[in-house]
Amino acid sequence: MSAEGTGRVVMISGANRGIGAAIARHLDANDWQLSLGVRSPTAMDVPPGGSDTLVQAYDARDRGSQTAWVEATVARFGRIDAVVANAGILIPKSVIEAEDHEIDDVYEVNVKAPMRLVRAAWPWLSATGCGRVINVVSLSGKRVASAQSGLYATSKFATLALTHAIRQAGWDKGIRATAICPGFVATDMAAAAPGRPDQLTQPDDIGRIVAFVLDLPNTASVAEIPINWALEPAL
């Protein structure tokens, strides 16, 4: 079974800028109906899809926020075909330097929030027979590049494991999950990245990859996609 078809509905967190906004643009161009979760809906410019798009308040730190967003999505569109968990935070500290509240914050947003969001949408994803989950992870979920990326990397390793756990839980229901693992992307989060911004992976590159993965049939599931802007050993 394929995820292709008209009227498909995707929920995208962190969709107001950067990678999330690029994913929304590409999926809108592929005729997906968009439900965008953002912290401040009133601060968002005209979204992709215009008035046909649902822009809903969503705070990854708020443990009830995902339920209201899922309910609003179903009330508006009547279905959920895919979830793209893109919202994330970076605290550049080693695991030795990080304070407990910083550890809690990183794990709340990067690990627990996507888990809660997928759980809330699970009945609707299951009902399609070809539900899709995309977790925007990082190459930091596959290697620890420096001490200062340590805290972030531990959370992203957990998010990568979460993606595989979702694949295991949803396989017989037709749900397929993919971890998108880019290195530095030309966004605000990568402002201190080495190299010029035009040398980095672009948000639109990620948008194209997500659009491609969401159109793959159940028989061609991709678990992980590492994305490099610079040569790295074995990645």
From TrEMBL:
Transmembrane segments: none
Matching Gene3D superfamilies: NAD(P)-binding Rossmann-like Domain
InterPro entries recorded: NAD(P)-bd_dom_sf, Sc_DH/Rdtase_CS, SDR_fam, SDR_oxidoreductase
UniProt xrefs under Pfam families: adh_short
Annotated family: Belongs to the short-chain dehydrogenases/reductases (SDR) family.
Stated name of the protein: SDR family NAD(P)-dependent oxidoreductase
Species annotation: Lichenifustis flavocetrariae
Origin organism lineage: Bacteria, Pseudomonadati, Pseudomonadota, Alphaproteobacteria, Hyphomicrobiales
